[in-house]
Structures are given as structure tokens and as C-alpha cells.
Design goal:
heterotrimer; A alpha/beta (417); B mainly alpha (272); C mainly alpha (327); B: 272 residues; MetI-like fold; 0% strand; globular; C: MetI-like fold; two-stranded antiparallel sheet; 16 helices; disordered N terminus
């Protein structure tokens, strides 16, 4: 009896252990890098580029130049931010990470990133407005791999039919007038992404900043005027109701139906625009009183997370440098078709190859980092309130003024904590 | 009763079913609609010019996700059965002391919101490296099914005549052998029901998948669909094609095991 | 019908303790006679994996959750592992938040309205399917489909159908001359929209359970009533309704507990928006923790724990009712 009991207990326990062990096995596989290893890890948010892609080959080549092999892992953008945070806590961070720029200061704030000075990486050639997203308390925590930003694409066929000359769109008043003409001519005026996510804020910022508003004060009259512009467009039928749930991809798909006069979208759609079934063009987003509105910069930063084995930094630095040379930046721009180099040298070199991108180079030069104004790690909290306010106003739940007032209160509460 | 009357009721039944299943029909319709026709207004009630683009997209992009989901589903079934069948036996037949509080705990366990569990798991997995692993997801998904499984097995096994167990004991079988060669075979139906639900729940889980396995290599099909929606694309044909494909296991189970489904729902809901 | 694992409806003591019975008193009389060397250790061995499992996968996450809610876990604190202990501060913040009354009201509305319609429609359908007609079984089977589909599938289908600009529902309305309705973007309508989708999801469950409950009402009761000249309506109120009461109560309470927890459908259709218009406690918690690029686990955990408390209250009501019906 005893024997049998023991056996049966063990059998039951054994099955359970087996189940756990099985699970434990599949748990392995972090990206930790042991001391002295010549394998270096790079994480990036470009899962669309597989191991055989030009991008992957470039990274490998940079590894060869630095005398090491590189193990690259791609995550989607938001996962990569989380993954980097977690890895920092576990001490299993990659040697080099390409991080979405608003996340850089958040991560830097946790102490998980090296500043470029201490690594000995020279960032002086990089346009300060593009580098801004990587600066926290006067220290620079990364190097932009390239930059993109937003502009207004238009459907030339529709504008022609409505008698709108895009060159006359100089400020908000002329833009709205153009939308009205398009609308009375039987088409939809404009579409944009007011989606409740970082994308919503990203798209709203050119208007927000274009009115002269500042992210430190969300309920300023300038801010209200920007949100009122958007809200009026929706209320007057110049923009569809779907902008409330639109992402940038959706707005682009809407635009491609050939039903819209304008769309707010980014550098990355240049190729797609040239392939559209109608003629397209683009202009910079105007500020309220005229001139180009500062648009937010998009794009990734190369960062070097802190490691226990500080001897690894030398090679990591070489890898980052390899990717950020002038030739390297132009190559990146070519590989992705939407990255404008972050240095003037790189920009000139790109324009030699692709003169048609000059509007975009200008736009990127005028662009502004989202986390600049020393918002740093507070930016995500403020951004959340911005897109919430956009949602509340566009849906009619609140007036623009009410929505922004509430957003400011919430942002203040969230950032003083 | 006259035939006329019964046909009249069949008519109503058909109408009701049609109304109820319209969204399902719509899903299939959209999955065959061309991207260029997707924004037609009014939308086409029938895909007159069907396209397989959506399905091509699924086959080229979503197959690994389907595989992952299958693996997770089967893993969850295994964990659930291994944990819940012996426990059900102990609770039903072995006169375990403390059975009452344990059953109570199992009941309470079912009431804990998935979000709360997900956060707890996240905090734990973060330190143990189980984040973004199939194993981690299997364990998390099994928490949906284990309490249900134990309670169902307990219910069923309580109905097994003690004489059967006695006879086995007289023949010299120990508790483990009794369980394995008498109880388990007799409980086949409840095991099927438990497996079926464990599989379906794991297959359709979104909360655990979206919190514990957001990145990289091992994404289940629900996240495959969500990726489309998350990018908020209007590629509805691809989304719906994935949805149709993701519904296939449910459809098969419905055809093959409808009896167990019904039994499971009622068992979960209605206590003697 | 062959064996169902568990019988439904009327109390059948001979079937022993059933799923969810809080205290399945050790199978009475008969098992007492048999003593096949029941050893507590053997019983423990069989139940040990479950206990280990419960401790690791329930108790520990719950403990971590409480811990999260009592500390201030910022991303920085997460990395450095030095979250400050803040006591009930997170709870104070949650209760004081503007979102709280809205989320609570939405949760209540979402749950109560969903359940009322799910149950009502489910009951009507169950009564209808009790009739004999051709294809009855097939159609009843088809009614299960919505329930078996992955939630994300149903939710995306509904959000595509409810799209303001090119959804099929608005097109149908246009045919009868109704202006487009902003199902998912109007703050006044969006909660109703997710409730509609949720009702649709819940009908099959209610139908199956109530149908099984109806099957257990003896046919001769109806025959007797017919002989007494009762009409269909009277039969429903005098026989069906009272005899179905125990099953109904439990269906509703179970529905309550499950509906309280719903995240997926709301999240996929509206992400709780616009603003907080369709935010419930569960989606709020999800949003704080995982829904933005900026994870805020501490308030999320606090909201989650509030939700557990509410679920527990209903849980206890459920147990009490069950105990009563068992007596």
C-alpha cells in the first residue's frame, strides 16, 4: 500500500513537474550577451525587413566592419519600447537598439541608456532639431537613424476640378477656403488621423504648434484655436466623421480612394503617392498665420543601453557610427524610402540622388522633436491627454476649450507626480 | 399537429437564424470583397466580383500565427487536463478534507477579471523570462479553464458508482491505477468537454495574448487579427479573411462536438 | 440524447455534488458504506498539482496585483525595482478621478442592459425552440455560432458593420431614409453600440442554458394545463416561468460576473472612447496598464482590485442563491 501510494504520488507530481519543465524550456531565449562574446545584439522595429533584406545586410556589414557578428531581432514599435524597458530591468538589454524617438527620453530617465558623450560619440553634426528628441537634461542619449515628418498631400485632379491652386494655401484661412471649394464641388475636403493613440497626437501637433501653442500648457487660446480648426472641419463636413477612429494608414487608404482633396500624412507615403490612380502633390502644413508649421519629427534613434560589461561599448559605438555616416544615412534613406538624413551633409547627398525630395528635406529641417521643450519622460503622459482632448472635441463630447482644459488639468496631475 | 403549422414555425426559425447570423454572413461577404469595392456605399450585399486577395494575405502572413494558436490551444488542453482531472477525482471520490473551501476558492477564481490576472502575470513573467513565450501563454490561458475543468470533473466523477472503484480496489489496484484505468476512461465525455472549452478559450484569448505576448516570434491568431485592426487599416477583406480562418476550429468543433458544447455550457452555468 | 456530464435543472441529489456547488458534502450515504482505504494523503496527492497551480497562478498574481496597487510603479521604478510604497494613494486617485463615476456608471449600464436583453431574447428563443418544427435542431445549432467565434472576430465584424461612413448598418438605414448614425464615434451612442454587440454575443449562451432548463419541465404539466383550458400565455406565466426560476437566477448571476469582466469587445470596437464614453472599469484598467505607450500599472491594479471586489459581491449573492435553491 505504501509503495503504491508513493508511486501514485510521484506519478501525479511527476506529470505536474513535467508540465512545468516543458514550460520552462520554452521560456529560454532572451537576448543577453555574455562578457567577451563577439556576438552583438541589435533590436529594431522593422519586422517588415527580414534577414535577407537590404536593411539586415547593412547591419551585418556594420558588424563585420567592427569585427563582430550581429544578431538582429525585430519587434513592432510599441513592443520594442516595452521590451527595452523590461530588458533594462532584467539586465538583458541589447547592445544597440533602434528606438522610436519619443521613447528615448522615457528610457533614458530610467537610467537604462548611455549618454553619447560618455561613450565618446560625436553628435555635433546632427541637426539640433532632430537630435532634440534624444536630449534629456542637457545630455544626448541617442543618434537619429534618419527622420520623417508630416505634410499635406493633395489630389491634384480634385483640386483642379474645384479650381483650387495648392500654391494659394498659405495659412489656415486659405486652407479652409480650399476645403470648402472642394466640398461644394462634391468631394470630401480633408482626412487626418485623430485616433486615440500617439498617432493622433503626432498628427495634431503641426496644427497645435502651428497655432503657437506649447505642450506645457494645453489649454492656451492658441491650443483651443487649433482644436477648434479640426472640430469645425468635422462639424462642417469638410472632414469625415471617421477621422475620430482613423489611423495614419486608414487616412491614407481613404485618400487613395480618390475621394479626398487633402490628407495629412508622412514622408513614408511618397512612393505610394506616386503610384496613386490620380495625380498627387504635397505642400508643407501651413501655420495659423501663414508659413510652415513646425511638424513633429518621426523616426528612430540608435541608442546604446547600459551593460554590466562596459568593455562592449567600444564596439557598439563603432556599429552606431557605421550606421550614421553620411553614406550610411543616405543608404538608410534609400532602404526605407522615407528617412531623411539627420545631418546637413547627409541631406545634401540625398538631394543629389533624389532632388524631388527637397520639400521633405525642408519639412524635416523645420520639424520639432516631440519630447523637446525638455518634456522628456513626461511627454507620453502629456500626449495621452492631447489625443484624449482631440477625441473629446471631435466626437462632440466636449467643446475644444473644455476638452483642453480637462487635458491640461490631467496632464498637470500626471506630470507632477 | 398539422404540417402547415410546423412549416410556419420553421419559417420564423429561419428568419430568426438569418438575423442572428447576419454578422457572420457579413464577415464572409467582406472577406471576399475587393479592396477597391470595400468603401462602396452602399456596400455590396453579395461579393459579385469575389477576390481571394484577403485569403492570399492570410495564407502568406497569418499561417505561423495559426500554428502558434494551435500549439497554445493544445498546450492549454494538456495543462488543464493534467491539473483538473486528478483534482476532480480527489474532490469527488477521495473525501478530501477541505474540499468545501477548495471548491469555494475555485468558484471565486472564476470571478477574477482577466485584466487583473494579466497584470499579475505580467509582473511575474517579467522577472522569470516567460514573457513572449508560448509556455507563458499556455499557463496563463489555462487559468481560464482549470477551475471550470476541476468543477466539471468533480461533478461528473461524483456520479460514478462507488462499486466500480471498490471492484478495482478488490482487484488490488492502487489509487493511481484505479484513477487511470477506471475513472479516466469512464470520464471520457467530460474530458472531451473540458478539452473543448480549454481549447476554444485559449484559441480566442485576446487579453493574455495582448499583454503577455505582444512581440516577436510567437503571436497567436487573435493578435494576428488585432495587428490588422491595431494598425487601423481598412483592409477589411484581409481582416475578415483571417477572422473566417480563425473561426474554422470553432466551426469544426460545432459540427463534430455540438453535444459537448451544449453540455459544457449548461454544466458551467447550471448546478444541480 | 446520450449522457450529458451534468444534468440540468431540477435538483437531483443522486447525481452528487455538481459543478460549482460550494460544499459538495462528501457523497453521502453510499460512499460512507464503502471504505476503500481512503487515505487523506492519497487525496492530497491527487489534488496537489491543483493546489500548487492555484498558489502559483492565482494567489501569486493576485498578491502581485495588490502589491502593484500599493506602490507607485512608474517605468523608471519598474527598471530600477525601487517603486515607492504609497499606501492607498492609488485608490484615492482612482476614486477621485473623473473617469471613475463614468466608468462605474458605464459598467453598470453595460452589464445590466446586456444581461436583461440577453436573457429576455434567450428566453423567448428557448420557448420558441421548444416547439416542434423541422430543422429545429439545425437552427438551434447555428444559433451557437456567434458564441463560439473568437471574440476579436465578432468585435471586428461589428465595428466594420457599424462604421459611420461605409458600414452596412448605415447603408441599410439610408435605404429607409435615415441619416447616417455615428455608432462608434458619437459619445451618446457608443455605449449602446457596444452593448448591442455584446447582447448578440450573449444570446447563444442564454438560449442553450434556458433551453436545457425548459427540457426539464415535465411535458405533462403543460398537457394538464391545456386540459384545464389554459392558453399559451397562461402556461408560460404559471408553469414555465416559476419552474425556470432557479436556472434563470443562476444564468443571470453568471452572466453578471462574466459581463463585468468584459474587455475585448469594448476595447476592439472603441478602445473605451471617444473620451471615456464607453469606458468600463475593466477597460479602464486595461488601458492604464497596457493600452497606451506609457504603462501605469499601479492605478490599473487599483481599478482591477475594485472590480474584483464588485465581482466578489455578486459571487456571494450567487452562492447564497445557490444554497437556497439547493435546500
Amino acid at each position: 500500500m505504501t509503495m503504491k501510494f508513493v508511486r501514485s504520488t510521484m506519478a501525479v507530481a511527476g506529470v505536474a513537474t513535467l508540465a512545468l519543465a516543458m514550460v520552462g524550456c520554452s521560456a529560454a531565449g532572451g537576448a543577453s550577451s555574455s562578457a567577451g562574446s563577439t556576438e552583438y545584439t541589435v533590436w529594431d522595429p522593422y519586422p517588415q525587413h527580414d534577414a535577407s533584406s537590404d536593411w539586415a545586410k547593412r547591419i551585418d556589414a556594420c558588424g563585420v566592419d567592427a569585427g563582430v557578428t550581429i544578431k538582429r531581432t525585430a519587434y513592432d514599435s510599441q513592443s520594442l519600447t516595452n521590451q527595452s524597458l523590461l530588458a533594462a530591468q532584467e539586465g538583458t538589454a541589447a547592445d544597440v537598439v533602434l528606438l522610436d524617438n519619443p521613447a528615448v527620453t522615457t528610457l533614458a530617465d530610467t537610467g537604462a541608456l548611455n549618454d553619447m558623450d560618455s561613450i565618446g560619440l560625436d553628435t555635433s553634426a546632427i541637426d539640433p532639431n532632430l537630435l532634440g528628441a534624444g536630449v534629456l537634461d542637457g545630455k544626448t542619449y541617442g543618434v537619429p537613424v534618419g527622420a520623417n515628418t508630416l505634410a499635406l498631400y493633395y489630389n491634384k485632379d480634385i483640386l483642379d476640378a474645384a479650381g483650387v491652386d495648392p500654391a494659394t494655401v498659405k495659412d489656415w484661412a486659405t486652407l479652409t477656403a480650399a476645403l470648402q471649394k472642394v466640398s461644394t464641388n462634391g468631394h470630401k475636403g480633408i482626412t487626418f488621423a485623430g485616433f486615440a493613440s500617439e498617432e493622433g497626437t503626432f498628427q495634431f501637433l503641426p496644427f497645435f504648434w502651428g497655432a503657437g501653442a506649447n505642450l506645457n500648457k494645453l489649454d492656451s487660446t492658441q491650443a483651443v484655436s487649433a482644436l477648434t480648426l479640426w472640430t469645425d472641419w468635422v462639424n462642417q463636413g469638410l472632414a469625415p466623421n471617421s477621422v475620430i477612429t482613423n489611423s495614419q494608414n486608414t487616412t491614407w487608404e481613404e485618400f487613395l480612394t480618390g475621394d479626398f482633396g487633402f490628407v495629412v500624412n508622412g514622408t513614408w507615403q511618397v512612393n505610394s503617392a506616386s503610384k496613386a490612380a490620380f495625380k498627387t502633390g504635397y505642400i508643407t502644413i501651413p501655420a495659423e498665420a501663414g508659413g510652415a508649421a513646425p511638424a513633429p519629427t518621426g523616426g528612430e534613434f540608435m541608442v546604446i543601453p547600459t551593460q554590466k560589461d562596459t568593455a562592449r561599448y567600444d564596439v557598439s559605438k563603432k556599429i552606431v557610427e557605421c550606421m550614421s555616416t553620411t553614406a550610411g544615412q543616405v543608404k538608410t534613406a534609400d532602404t526605407f524610402a522615407y528617412y531623411i538624413p539627420a545631418t546637413s551633409a547627409g541631406q545634401s547627398a540625398l538631394l543629389v540622388e533624389h532632388p524631388e525630395l527637397s520639400v521633405w528635406v525642408d519639412a524635416v529641417k523645420a520639424a520639432k522633436g516631440r519630447t523637446s521643450d525638455n518634456l522628456g519622460a513626461n511627454y507620453p503622459k502629456i500626449s495621452e491627454q492631447v489625443y484624449t482632448a482631440v477625441q473629446n472635441a471631435l466626437s462632440g463630447a466636449m467643446t475644444p476649450a473644455e476638452a483642453l482644459k480637462e487635458a491640461q488639468a490631467a496632464a498637470a496631475a500626471a506630470t507632477t507626480k | 399537429m398539422s404540417h402547415r403549422r410546423s412549416w410556419w414555425k420553421t419559417g420564423i426559425g429561419l428568419v430568426l437564424t438569418a438575423v442572428m447570423l447576419f454578422p457572420v454572413y457579413w464577415m464572409i461577404n467582406v472577406s471576399f470583397t475587393k479592396t477597391s469595392d470595400l468603401r462602396d456605399s452602399p456596400p455590396n450585399l453579395f461579393p459579385f466580383a469575389p477576390t481571394l486577395d484577403g485569403y492570399t494575405a492570410v495564407l502568406s502572413q497569418q499561417l505561423p500565427y495559426l500554428g502558434t494558436s494551435l500549439l497554445i490551444g493544445l498546450g492549454t488542453v494538456l495543462v488543464t487536463l493534467v491539473i483538473s482531472a486528478p483534482a476532480g477525482y480527489a474532490l469527488a471520490k477521495l473525501r478530501l478534507r477541505g474540499a468545501a473551501p477548495l471548491t469555494f476558492i475555485l468558484l471565486v477564481a472564476q470571478m477574477i477579471p482577466g485584466v487583473v490576472m494579466a497584470m499579475g502575470f505580467y509582473a511575474i513573467y517579467l522577472n522569470s523570462g516567460l514573457l513572449n513565450t508560448v509556455g507563458g501563454l499556455i499557463l496563463a490561458d489555462s487559468t481560464i479553464a482549470v477551475p471550470f475543468g476541476v468543477l466539471l470533473f468533480t461533478a461528473f466523477m461524483s456520479g460514478i458508482p462507488n462499486e466500480l472503484i471498490q471492484a478495482a480496489t478488490v482487484d488490488g489496484a492502487g489509487p493511481w491505477r484505479t484513477f487511470r484505468s477506471i475513472i479516466l476512461p469512464v470520464s471520457r465525455n467530460s474530458a472531451i468537454t473540458v478539452s473543448l472549452f480549454a481549447f476554444l478559450w485559449a484559441w480566442s484569448d485576446f487579453i493574455f495574448a495582448s499583454t503577455l505576448s505582444r512581440s516577436g516570434q510567437f503571436l497567436p491568431i487573435t493578435l494576428g487579427i488585432y495587428k490588422y485592426i491595431g494598425n487601423n487599416t481598412s483592409q477589411w477583406n484581409a481582416i475578415m479573411a483571417t477572422a473566417v480562418v480563425a473561426s474554422i476550429p470553432a466551426a469544426i468543433l460545432l459540427i463534430v462536438a455540438q453535444r459537448y458544447v451544449a453540455a459544457g455550457v449548461t454544466a458551467g452555468a447550471v448546478k444541480d | 440524447m446520450t449522457t450529458l456530464p451534468v444534468r440540468v435543472g431540477a435538483a437531483r441529489p443522486d447525481a452528487g455534488g455538481a459543478v460549482g456547488t460550494p460544499a459538495p458534502l462528501p457523497p453521502k450515504q453510499r460512499s460512507r458504506r464503502t471504505s476503500f482505504g481512503t487515505n487523506q494523503w492519497v487525496a492530497l496527492a491527487f489534488v496537489a498539482p491543483l493546489i500548487a497551480y492555484l498558489v502559483i497562478f492565482y494567489a501569486f498574481p493576485l498578491y502581485r496585483n495588490i502589491e502593484l496597487s500599493l506602490h507607485d510603479y512608474t517605468p523608471r521604478a519598474f527598471v530600477q525595482g525601487n517603486a515607492a510604497f504609497v499606501g492607498i494613494e492609488n485608490y484615492v486617485a482612482v476614486f477621485g478621478s473623473k473617469t471613475f463615476p463614468k466608468a462605474l456608471a458605464n459598467t453598470a449600464l453595460f452589464t445590466i442592459v446586456s444581461i436583461a436583453f440577453q436573457f429576455g431574447i434567450g428566453l423567448i428563443l428557448a420557448v420558441f425552440f421548444r416547439n416542434n418544427f423541422r430543422l429545429n435542431g439545425v437552427l438551434r445549432g447555428l444559433f451557437l455560432v456567434p458564441w463560439l467565434l473568437p471574440l476579436i472576430v465578432s468585435a471586428s465584424t461589428w465595428s466594420s458593420m457599424m462604421n459611420s461612413d461605409n458600414g452596412v448598418i448605415n447603408s441599410a438605414l439610408a435605404v429607409i431614409g435615415v441619416a447616417p448614425v455615428n455608432w462608434l464615434t458619437s459619445p451618446d451612442l457608443v455605449l449602446a453600440s457596444v452593448i448591442i454587440a455584446n447582447i448578440w454575443l450573449g444570446i447563444p449562451f442564454n438560449l442553450v442554458v434556458l433551453y436545457s432548463g425548459l427540457q426539464n419541465i415535465p411535458e405533462d404539466l403543460y398537457e394538464a394545463a391545456s386540459l384545464d383550458g389554459a392558453n399559451a400565455w397562461q402556461k408560460f406565466w404559471r408553469i414555465t416561468f416559476p419552474l425556470l426560476r432557479p436556472v434563470s437566477l443562476i444564468t443571470i448571476l453568471l452572466g453578471l460576473i462574466y459581463t463585468l469582466k468584459v474587455v475585448d469587445i469594448i476595447w476592439i470596437m472603441t478602445a473605451g472612447g471617444p473620451g471615456d464614453s464607453s469606458t468600463t472599469l475593466a477597460t479602464w484598467s486595461y488601458r492604464e496598464a497596457f493600452g497606451t505607450g506609457n504603462p501605469d500599472f499601479s492605478p490599473a491594479a487599483a481599478v482591477g482590485n475594485v472590480l474584483i471586489l464588485i465581482a466578489l459581491i455578486f459571487g456571494f449573492i450567487y452562492l447564497r442563491i445557490q444554497n437556497r435553491t439547493e435546500k
